[in-house]
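ugh ok so i messed up the first submission bc i forgot one of the chains. this is the corrected input, ALL of the components this time, i swear. 447 residues overall. if the numbers dont match what u have on ur side tell me asap before i send this to the collaborators (the ones from the other lab, u know who)
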Amino acid sequence: MNIRGARILGAPRDAVFAAICDPDTLLAVIPGCRAIEKVDDAEYRAEITLRLPGVVGTYRTVVRLDDADAPHRGVLQGEVEGPLGSIRGQATFRLAETDTGTTVDYEGQATIGGPLARLDSRFVEGLAGSLIGQGLANLDEQLQRERTAVIAVDGHESHEEATG
Amino acid sequence: MTVSDYFLPRSLPEALDLIGTHGPELLVMAGGTVAMPLINDGLSLPRAVMGLRRTGLDRVAQLDGWLHVGATATLTQLQEQRAVPLLSEAASATASWSVRNMGTVGGNLFTPPPGGDIAVALLALDTNVTLAGPKGERTLPLADFFTGFMTTSLTDDELVTALSVPLPSGSTAYTKFGRKQGNTPAVVTVAVRLTWDADRIVDARIALGAVGPHPIRARAAERGLLGTTLDPDARAAAATAATAECEPFTDAIATDWYRRRMVGVVVARTLEKLAAGATREDR
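and heres the new structure output, hopefully the right one now
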């Protein structure tokens, strides 16, 4: 299975990188994430429950952030295990500053095991892409909210101006 | 692992309570035409299942210029209503009698492409979808309901309860193009609704199915039709625009290349039907 994509987030690169390393933010933005625990500086364990058409289940997830070069890039090694099998893989992400925020580029490969592997790869790839997209959209929303709150507290701009 | 609990709630509040009690691991099933094949194949292993067939959400009624379709109304019920011909056409082009007798309109929204043809017609009709949860009801345009491949804006504690379709004025047309005449997944599905002022188009909807992560609107093609008389040039331009803006995929039915080519052909043919006045009953 191959995954790749990109999205522009409306926040500075440092804030985006910090958010990716913050368990509370991850809990709030990962679709279906019910619990997350930081095992050490680089490893997270999470429990994700997904209610999909015709299929429900809880997936235990372990993710390691290797080769982190904050705030430019990182490599995620991960494993997802659930009732229908497992997905093991790695993904590289890169953060680049733009005029309006930060571009997140990601690319990864994974191996699917168990009954899941019997499905057309379009389903697992399509769903993974869709969930990553939703997670990044949630992250963008959260970063915008935090930024608006900071501006309002600093009093440089009124809340109305900051939110447009 | 086999299903150990099957719940058959008799009302919407009872169904919402069951979701509250069992959480997102409760498999919600309406007609079962998506879930049951997955369960039988060992690709879905739910412990608890809730069937919605007895919740009373299956009414189809016309009221104040709207057609209200309950989420668990079957595709056969949709096929038999006469208020919105586009929906009857879409329902009769979906699967077989036996599947239409079980499959529901609400459930069809969750059928991954190339399935989910009903939503293509519903999108062209500017349908609203009503969701109910513990905090009450909310209604949103169907176009905002789909968020990605197999994902929607439905939260884990909500259910789709109804679809509200404004009775269309103007003209509509529907084409499902598959590898055979009937009971077949789509290569591409096209639904069009045009509103006219004399001989000029003032509003256009073109919805496409099986050529994106979910049913989509061809917005550039729609814009290109405004102010035109649906002349051959306008039809060709709309077909070209739709070809460019779709996001087709490859599966056992067709390649992405073939699907993209067929978007142009089928959009052009559907607009031709409308230009010929085949279904311009209200113009």
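quick check: The longest strand of chain B covers residues 186-197. that seems consistent at least. The domain at 60-166 of chain B is CATH 3.30.465.10 (Uridine Diphospho-n-acetylenolpyruvylglucosamine Reductase; domain 3).
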